[in-house]
Each structure stands twice: as C-alpha cells, then as structure tokens.
Specification:
Blueprint lengths: L1 E4 L4 E4 L5 H14 L4 E3 H10 L5 H13 L3 E3 L16 E7 H9 L3 E2 L13 H12 L7 E7 L2 E6 L1 H12 L24 H9 L1 E7 L5 H11 L8 H8 L3 H10 L2 H6 L10 H15 L1 H6 L2 H13 L3 H22 L20 H12 L3 H9 L1 H13 L3 H6 L4 H19 L6
Parallel strand pairs: 3-4, 6-8, 7-9
Antiparallel strand pairs: 1-2, 5-9, 7-8
Length: 432
C-alpha cells in the first residue's frame, strides 16, 4: 500500500498500511513535528477511531512515527486519578497591593521562576496594561498560592502579575508604555506618578485563594495543572519542579545537565521544558517507588511520589545514587553508542531514531542493578546484546507495543524483557 509524503506530494509503500491510515498518520506527523513528541494515547485513539486497534497495527503506526523523527511519550490514559474532595482545603482572601509587595520584598512569597527560565515572560505593554488596570480601578483575576509554609507562599497562578508589581513598585525598573486610557503617563515609573495613582495602586485589593496546610500534594498538582495562566502552560515536570522544590529538583537538574547524560542521549532530550529531568525522575521512580506502586497510581501521581521520596533523602543517598546512575549511563552508551535508548532496526541498524523514555527507564533500571564487573562483561559482549535486542524489536512482538504503552502490564513486561536479555547475555558463556 501507499503512504502519502507531504513533502514530495506522493505516496510510498509502507508496512502494508492502507491509504486512510497513512493519511491520518501524516496528519499526526504534522501536528507533532514542532514538539518532536506526542502522547501514545493519541495514537491509540486514532487507531480506535479507524477500527485498527490490533497490536500489530499499533506497532506499525508507532514504528512509522518514530521513523519520521516523532518520539512517543508513554502515558497512562487507561487509568483515571482519584480525587478525594474532602481533603481539599482552600480559602478565599484579599490583600492590598502594598501588602503583597511587602511579602515579596521579605521573601514571604516565593517568586522562583527557574522552571520558566527559557520562556519569554510578559512584554512591556502587557505589564503596563496591568498597572493601568489598578490606576483606573479595574479588577484583575484572582491568584492562587500554596500556603504549606506560613512564611513562604508558593505561587500557583499569578506569577507574571506579581513579577510585574515587583518590577514596577519595588525595583522601580518598569517604565509604562502602550497605555490605553492614561497614555499621558507613558514613560513614567512608579515614583513619577501623581500620588493619587500611586495610592490607587497601593490600596487596590487583590483577591486570591490560599491552599491551606494539609491539602495533599496531588490535589495541589491537579490545581496547578488546571489553572496556570493560558499562554504559559506548564508541562507536568515543570509543575512538579514548582511544587516539590528542594533536594529533588536540584538533584534532577544536576544529573540532567551532567556531561554523561548529554553524551548518552546525544543531546536529543529537550531541556527547555524539563523533559530531560522527567526522564531522570522516571528512572528513580521505578528504582525506588517500584512496579507495584505504579499499578495503583496514575503516571503523574507516581512521579510526584518519587519527587517527595527524593526530597526526604540524606546526602549519602545522593552521593551513592549519583555514581550508580552515571555508571549505568556510561555502560549503556558503551554498548549502544548514539543509539542508546532508541529502537534499532535490523534493516537499518545505524539509523538514529528518537529517544524513547520507556526504553530509557527500562534499560537504566536493568543496567543499574549490575555490579561493575557485570557491566564490563556486558560491554565486552555488546555485539551479542545488540543482536538480541534487535531480534526482539524485529519480532513485532508485544515488546514493541509495550514500549509505547503506559499500561501497568506493559510497564512490567518491558522491564522484565530487558532484564531477561541482560541476564541471557551475562550467562551466555560461563567461561568468560
């Protein structure tokens, strides 16, 4: 059958798929081309809509997308999170702008924007219009804070508005521009304004919601995901970074920026949306939270639990696991080179397909359990392991489907298959 290639305006034969499926897959390629990644649930839904929900069709579709440079992000679409509404404790409050700015001044509102470090913030005209709203006494939308720490609120929604107030009133750096109603004050800083407008700004009441201590972390995560400002939508790991700041965030950043991680992944895991940190986190989740816990949780909650776990560890834990993690990375790289954590085809053994997060967590989990001697033995027998791995992929077996699935049984199977491959190679020649 033929597959439409939009760049050439023609159809090409591919995997015995018919024209309708090929056409729809090409649409997915167009959608995913900018992000270079899409969720597996999107592919599953497409196949279901086309009545093509067989394992073989799924493997073909996944293989085609990855051939075209689209990575697949494993999700957990078959599981729905449980939310206990009785544990939600959120109270509405108001504070004056002057009080809000004082809290910012004394560090009582955390404006850590590290998770948005590579994204453009509000432009000057948008900032100015916010200030103008206070000057002409127009209301602004409410903000949301996490009040887990009495003396240090975490911003869930409203970060850009707060940064604007700090820049204008406290830092005295923002000069107004593009004002709609008060254009005569364009170019003015806070101290340049008549006292009547200064007072209106300072005395303006800001409505906000405070999440009280005792509210579970998964509730905060869900709220953060739902209400953070449109246009600055955060990825799941960015939200985790904001909610679980501490040892976990620093450790994940350190490992994701390590030269060995960059080398083993060939710099192919985007850092700007923290996809690199999520991959590292997935390894620690499977290693320390375990497979059984994954069965009980959504993927999001599973990874949040891993963040909490890391935050409670001592320095000795990080020292030990830093070495284990980097050694496992180096081992995988020496075995697979630039094809580490990717699908490998027998027909095109040196083609470099996208990094697969499921393969990353499974290979790292399997290799990290080995002794230094066993890792070196695996490296010495890398040709045998590569051949065995390619053989498993070329079978178009359940392994292929498991790589792109977030289901618990797929999660367990792919981990066990990789561990079995490793043990087979280690025991292939007892004389070595």
């Amino acid at each position: 059958m033929r597959l439409y290639d939009g760049r050439k305006g023609l159809y090409e034969k591919r995997n015995n798929m018919d024209d309708k499926l090929c056409h729809e897959l090409n649409k997915l390629i167009e959608i995913g081309s900018d992000k270079r990644i899409m969720r597996t649930s999107t592919v599953v839904q497409l196949l279901n809509d086309l009545n093509r929900n067989t394992q073989d069709e799924y493997a073909k579709a996944i293989g085609y997308l990855e051939d075209k440079g689209i990575g697949l992000e494993v999700d957990d679409s078959e599981r729905k999170p449980f939310l206990d509404s009785s544990k939600i404790a959120i109270t509405p409050k108001t504070l004056s702008v002057e009080s809000i700015v004082k809290k910012i001044k004394y560090g009582e509102i955390n404006l850590d924007t590290e998770f948005q470090r590579k994204r453009s913030l509000w432009k000057n005209d948008v900032k100015s219009q916010l200030i103008e709203s206070f000057m002409v006494q127009l209301p602004i939308p409410p903000m949301y804070f996490d009040g887990k720490k009495e003396n240090e609120w975490l911003v869930i929604d409203g970060l850009q508005r707060l940064c604007t107030l700090k820049e204008f009133i406290y830092d005295q750096k923002l000069a107004l521009s593009d004002m709609e109603y008060l254009a005569d004050y364009n170019g003015c800083k806070f101290d340049d304004l008549p006292r009547i407008y200064q007072r209106r700004i300072e005395e303006a009441q800001i409505a906000f919601y405070l999440i009280l201590p005792g509210t579970p972390s998964d509730v905060k995560y869900s709220l953060f995901k739902r209400i953070n400002t449109p246009g600055l939508r955060l990825e799941p790991q960015e939200i985790r970074h904001a909610l679980y700041q501490g040892k976990a965030t620093k450790f994940l950043q350190e490992l994701a920026e390590n030269q060995m991680f960059c080398k083993a992944t060939d710099h192919d895991v985007p850092a700007e949306r923290m996809q690199d940190r999520e991959m590292v986190l997935r390894y620690f989740a499977i290693r320390y939270i375990g497979e059984e816990r994954y069965k009980e949780e959504t993927l999001d909650r599973y990874l949040c639990e891993a963040m909490e776990f890391l935050n409670f560890q001592e320095e000795s834990f990080f020292e030990e696991n830093r070495t284990i993690f980097l050694n496992a990375l180096e081992c995988c790289y020496k075995i697979f080179g630039k094809q580490a954590f990717r699908r490998i085809s027998k027909l095109k053994p040196y083609d470099k397909k996208p990094i697969n997060s499921a393969l990353f967590e499974s290979w790292m989990n399997g290799v990290s359990k080995l002794s230094n001697y066993q890792q070196q033995l695996l490296i010495d027998r890398k040709d045998i392991l590569r051949e065995r791995y390619i053989e498993e992929l070329d079978k178009r077996s359940t392994f292929n489907a498991d790589i792109g699935s977030g289901k618990y049984r797929s999660f367990v199977r792919r981990n066990h298959i990789i561990e079995e491959m490793i043990q087979e190679v280690l025991q292939s020649d007892k004389k070595d």
